[in-house]
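Illustration 12: Embryonic stem cell-specific 5-hydroxymethylcytosine-binding protein.
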Amino acid sequence: MCGRARCTLSPSQAARAFGFPTTTLVAGGGTGGGCGGGDAPAVPLLRMDRYRPSYNVSPGTYLPVGTVRARPAGYDGGGDMDGEVSVIQCMKWGLVPSFTGKKEKPDHFRMFNARSESIKEKASFRRLIPNNRCLVAVEGFYEWKKDGPKKMPYYIHFQDQRPLVFAALFDTWTNSEG
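Figure caption equivalent — predicted structure in token form:
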């Protein structure tokens, strides 16, 4: 994917794009069937207060990500027998490997694009494949075509406006501030 994307998806739109369940909200706040009011993800939402929908998202920006996590304390919804559940979590786009020094400034542009043809060649990506996979949904992304000295942006998206869902990898890094 290119270095810019559009992501203005709501949590329920992201849940549907990931294939996660949603619930219908009845006008008045309860759950039920078909009385309007919209819908909501039927999975836990983690740190979504960090997400800011934008038409121009770049590496280092928070995006809604679909993944499987250990069941949060007090969660009584669905999930598998091993105590895992699908979640939508806000994460920064651009890999900062866990082995990055605590005092180093993270460079989200350095590793924001894991290419399928070389993913197993780079240790930073290869070690994440077994347990740190996730999904990222956006409405589209931008590619630039060079025409002499000028660059022309092209917006790549589905004609029917459904979200694009990308396979992704994640890691956890802690800076000196915790």
